[in-house]
Amino acid sequence: MERNKRTHKRPIELLSPARDLACGIAAIDHGADAVYIGPARYGARAAAGNSIDDIATLCRYAHQYGAHVYATVNTIIYDEELPDVRRLLCQLAEAGADAVLFQDMAVPMIVKEEGLPLQLHASTQTDNRTPEKVEWMHSLGACRVVLARELSAEEIAEIHRRVPDVELEVFVHGALCVSYSGLCYASHHCFARSANRGECAQLCRMKFDLTDADGHAIEHGRHLLSLKDLNQSRHLAELAEAGATSFKIEGRLKDMAYVKNTTAAYSLLTDRLISQHPDEYERASMGHCRYNFTPDLRKTFNRGYTTYFLHGRQPDIFSPDTPKAMGEFVGTVKALPAQRPTPGTRHAPHTSHPSVITVAGTASFSNGDGLCFIDDNRELRGFRVNRAEGNRLTLAGPVPPQLRRGMSLYRNNDQQMERLLAGKSSERKIPVTLTLTVIPDGFKLIADDGRRKATATIDCEHTKAQKPQTENIIRELSKLGNTVYECKAVILPPDFDFFIPASRLAELRRSCLASNMTAEMHDGGYRPSASRVRAGACVSPQENPSSLSAMTEEESGMKPYMLNVSNSLARKFYEQQGISPPPSFEQYEPEGEKVLMQCRHCLRFALGHCARNGGTRPAWREPLSLTLSNGSRFHVRFDCKRCVMEIIKFPKSAESNCSDCRQG
Hints:
Layout: E1 2-3, E2 10-18, H1 21-29, E3 34-39, E4 49-50, H2 52-63, E5 68-73, H3 82-95, E6 99-102, H4 106-114, E7 119-122, H5 131-139, E8 142-146, H6 153-162, E9 167-174, H7 186-191, E10 208-211, E11 217-222, E12 229-231, H8 236-242, E13 244-249, H9 256-276, E14 281-283, E15 288-291, E16 305-306, E17 328-335, E18 339-341, E19 349-351, E20 356-360, E21 370-374, E22 380-389, E23 392-395, E24 408-413, H10 415-422, E25 426-439, E26 442-448, E27 452-459, E28 463-464, H11 470-477, E29 485-491, E30 498-499, H12 502-523, H13 530-534, H14 553-556, H15 568-576, E31 594-599, H16 603-606, E32 624-627, E33 633-639, E34 644-649, H17 659-662
Parallel strand pairs: 2-3, 2-13, 2-14, 3-4, 3-5, 5-6, 6-7, 7-8, 8-9, 9-13, 12-16, 25-29
Antiparallel strand pairs: 1-27, 9-12, 10-11, 10-32, 15-25, 17-20, 17-24, 18-19, 20-23, 21-22, 21-24, 22-23, 25-26, 26-27, 28-30, 31-34, 32-33, 33-34
């Protein structure tokens, strides 16, 4: 076996979520270069756990295409769980996982101690927003760092310039957390459900009242911390130029239709990027896809889209009216049922067609579509289409009384797209060129997919053919059936005139592809080597002391509990770094002021009152307060020096009782 000689190009990876085995296979089939999936526990999404057997099956499937599987072990870990985590990491390595994403520092220590052939990827839960932090993570053995969602293209480029040897994974699509990942303690404080343990209750998606220091109302009953969804589909070239290696789609809790559509959409965009820069980039895995649908990001779950901080602060990144899916804009209400007095009464209205509306726009509709709108009170309302005749829609029930002419309509459930995605919607194949040559005692077949070569031979007499065999040989060798390969071409010597029985040709073809190509894929560098992982794992602090400044409160605003240390191994690690960390927030809530969130989203800016960014000076007096419907209140503090907004819990002496909140 031999690897083809290749020019140096930067692999670009499309990384898709896998809620389960079926979603993982669908992601690979629709163009993912890698998938990330959670084991039964410790995966930062408690509702998306998978067995080791399923992860092993996914690894075998993905590796056929040179695609990777990353296991998420990115929660904080308690002492009593350390033996289980150690077993889990060994099982993941045995199952064929290529890397493990971690938050807890116990994980890289265990990987090093056990000598496991797993790459270490520092999860976004480790709050990777500065070059110093990324450099520090790299020094611990992380070959890849998942960057904070809040970074701009300029900040990503600076990290890449400062730490060029680390792979940078960036989110390009999906839900956004309002707090820097790993630094949100609101769910645990209010509901005893830790975001750092994969159990987030999404406090940020709830309604709040916003008041000033004098109790004056600024906003009432709005989703002030609920962000729109990320969509960087138009900016992949910019992210690649900034140094991104992996484009990550969020969504381990999303369904298969979401995975198929988003993966296919970004795979096509990644292919386009590479076709425009063929000398710079290449896909990280092999194969091309044929879809029986047109990918459309507007047609999957979204709260409206934003590029977030890609180009700095933007005025429209949050979704204060609703945290639910809006979907795609499909037009405005043109006509509603005409009302007239019911015969025999003076006041009761009667409608001749009580469930028919007309829509102005170019969208086409299907029976069963789900539509929604924002009413005059800024509440999301929805209804289902029973029958669609052009732009005339008969609803499944009465027309919502809140619906008005001229209101914008959105489709958050597209039946036609759902039907297309419900069945087999893509086929992925690896093109191979097959070259047949003559050897002294038989024949040799060489399979070449552009990155790898595999060979097989058969002993067979050189029997002269009585009539031309070229077409028969090409037809027989091209029968790749249900394999992951498709025949691009069959090449024979110009003077080839031998007869080879069809059964021997089939034997030669199967031997070449089924064994050699698979072995080459696993041994030829498409999976990580153990040496790459262990080379820089867990260095001593003296080798990189400057990076520790990124973890001090003066530099980053981090409180000691934000190190999220919850076990003896992690505590030992930090003590070796010269830091004596307190227990995690989940184990021991600090007294007095509690910073529950650190956010780049800023309400002062969002409401048009950031003087630094051209806003007007507010009439309110700070500090501001956010109040839930049950009376629980939180301070809002603006740290303009670091351009950060913090959500802070009042000290007990000043806060309203939170017992109802805790029972939520």
